[in-house]
Design a protein that fits this description.
It comes from Culex quinquefasciatus (Southern house mosquito). By secondary structure, the chain is mainly alpha-helical. It contains 20 helices and 8 strands. The longest helix has 132 residues.
């Protein structure tokens, strides 16, 4: 429709307008020429202002011409309807745009409200945070002031106490000086009195010297006469008795018979005493080689009656209670414990066991737990006690086995460091006494016994004699704890040596608040290569660290420092091993020799 109303229809300069159009009329009219001449005299701003008020009449002329053309056209009515439809469509589009604009305005209002609400919420949150921080700061200031007041009061009390102690010390020093002075004066008086008495006695002795010598002479004469008379009387009596005895043969025979019976009684009493002592030792006492036992004895009952009464009422215990080992090893040991308990209940033949591995891995502990779980007594001896006994070793070993055979409940005989006297006879240089002790041990363990169970422990099982290996029914290797086992051990001993004493409220033993679980996991990684015994000693060192601190409070840094010190000591001990010791202790590193770790 731009051609109809003259939109954007400007005639280029220098081109003549079409004939009969608005250009010809404009060019031919004198008003237009005058107006063009007048416009040339105006400024640029004035021309722009004038252009805003101009009206192009050619557009109306074209519209009128178009209307006349449409009226003459046979499609005029359709064009008018089409124009109405187009105008209705434009009105609908305009209304849709208006509604869309109104919806956009409403959405903008909603968004603005949401933004305002969010800003208000953030403002309230920030104000709340500021109030909390202000309250915390005020609380900290109040707490600090309170702590300073407490510290000031403590300093005042300490100062008063120090002054009181100084005053008491001064008074005590003055009293001590006074007492010492009094004692010194009293001692001087006593010395003067004693000196005067001695001088008076000496003077009297000098004056009575002749009289004293006469008294001494008379006493000596009387004693000599008395002794001579006694000798004469005894000689006459003995002579008459001997004469009467020798002249009467019945009395001689009676005397000889009495002396013979007396000698027989002495020797009989001596033999009976030996037999009775061996019987008592076998039934009630314990052999000299046994260092520790749970078996009842009269002497132990007298010394510890309460423990003896507790022992008479055994309680069912777990064989692996308090023992931390690898899962496969725990499963195997549990099978051994169940088999041993059923063997004891059914009065079967016990199986001999060898437990080998690095020191401190729980061999002795498990042996005690096994005996308690099975309802048996246990006895612990060490192989190092056999060698120094020399010839008496054979007799001592026989006493141990005789004593073990008298147990009614069954005895678990645990021999620690058994390789000390059970070495190979073919390659090892052993003495005759040690060889005899080994032969006696082989003789007493040739067959399985329903009375006692033999459990050997060694760090170097490859040194055993072949005959000893032939008598073993089960061999169990105790290895160093892994990461999980070390963490379990550290948690166990941390609870035993730190948390339980702190919970009992013992003096000078408190624990600071920190993440115990994370620290135990961290220490488990640091303690690689350490045995269970070394980890238990680490628990004791935590107690020592707490007791040695000024405040008696165990902190996280103290625990970690003790752990790192134990790790350094372990590495130093391993570095001190000689080449032969490294070869003998192959079990520590699983047969790969020993390589100490570097710091």
């Amino acid at each position: 429709m731009s051609w109809l109303f003259g939109y954007k229809s400007q005639v280029p300069q220098g081109v003549p307008p079409p004939p009969g159009g608005e250009g010809g009329d404009a060019a031919g009219s004198p008003g237009s020429a005058g107006q063009a001449a007048g416009d040339q005299n105006l400024t640029k701003a004035e021309r722009k202002a004038m252009e805003a008020y101009r009206f192009d009449s050619s557009a109306l002329e074209r519209a009128a011409e178009a209307a006349r053309t449409l009226e003459r056209s046979k499609h005029a009515r359709e064009a008018l309807e089409l124009s109405k439809l187009q105008e209705g469509t434009r009105q609908q589009e305009y209304m849709a745009k208006v509604k869309e604009y109104e919806a956009h305005i409403e959405q903008s209002k909603v968004e603005q409200k949401r933004v305002d609400h969010e800003e208000r919420r953030k403002t309230l949150a920030e104000e709340t945070k500021q109030q909390q921080q202000r309250a915390q700061y005020q609380d900290q200031l109040a707490r600090k002031r309170y702590e300073e007041q407490l510290a000031q009061q403590q300093r005042v009390q300490e100062e008063n106490l120090r002054k009181q102690e100084e005053s008491v010390a001064k008074q005590e020093a003055m009293r001590r000086k006074t007492v010492e002075h009094e004692m010194e004066l009293r001692e001087k008086n006593k010395m003067k009195l004693l000196e005067a008495e001695l001088r008076a006695k000496a003077k009297v002795d000098r004056e009575n010297r002749d009289l004293t010598l006469e008294q001494i002479r008379l006493k000596a004469e009387e004693n000599r006469v008395t002794v001579m008379e006694s000798i004469k009387t005894a000689g006459s009596v003995l002579g008459q008795g001997a004469t009467a005895l020798l002249t009467d043969w019945n009395k001689v025979a009676t005397t000889v018979g009495g002396l013979s019976l007396l000698a027989l009684g002495v020797y009989s009493a001596k033999g009976a005493t030996g037999v009775a002592s061996r019987f008592v030792e076998a039934r009630i006492g314990k052999p000299s080689l046994v260092n520790e036992t749970s078996r009842f004895s009269l002497l132990e009952a007298v010394r510890h009656p309460i423990d003896t009464l507790k022992r008479l009422k055994p309680k069912p215990t777990d064989a692996l209670q308090g023992v931390v080992l690898q899962p496969k090893l725990e499963e195997r040991l549990r099978d051994i414990a169940i088999a041993t308990k059923n063997t004891k209940n059914n009065k079967g033949l016990y199986r001999n066991i060898l437990m080998h591995g690095p020191p401190g891995t729980g061999k002795t502990m498990f042996a005690k737990k096994l005996a308690s779980h099975s309802g048996m007594d246990y006895a612990i001896m060490t192989g190092g006690d056999v060698g120094p006994m020399g010839r008496d070793a054979v007799t001592a070993l026989h006493k141990v086995f005789d004593w073990a055979n008298t147990s009614r409940r069954g005895l678990l005989l645990f021999i620690d460091e058994a390789d000390a006297f059970l070495r190979k006879r073919s390659s090892e240089q052993i003495s005759e006494d040690m060889r005899s002790a080994l032969n006696a041990f082989l003789y007493r363990t040739g067959e399985q016994n329903p009375r006692f169970m033999l459990v050997l422990a060694s760090n170097t099982p490859e040194q055993f004699d072949y005959a000893i290996n032939d008598r073993l029914d089960e061999m169990v290797e105790f290895t160093l704890p892994g990461l999980e086992e070390r963490e379990r051990l550290i948690r166990l001993y941390f609870d035993k040596f730190v948390l339980q004493p702190a919970a009992e409220g013992k003096k000078r033993f408190k624990v600071e608040q920190w993440d115990y679980s994370a620290v135990c996991s961290r220490m488990a990684k640091l303690c690689e290569g350490m045995s269970g015994r070394e980890i238990s000693k680490l628990g004791v060192s935590w107690q020592a660290a707490c007791y040695s601190s000024e405040a008696g409070v165990l902190t996280e840094q103290m625990v970690l420092d003790r752990c790192e010190a134990s790790v350094r000591q372990h590495k130093q001990k391993m570095a001190w091993l000689s080449e032969q010791e490294k070869l003998d202790h192959k079990s520590i590193t699983g047969g790969k020799g020993f390589l100490p770790q570097q710091n």
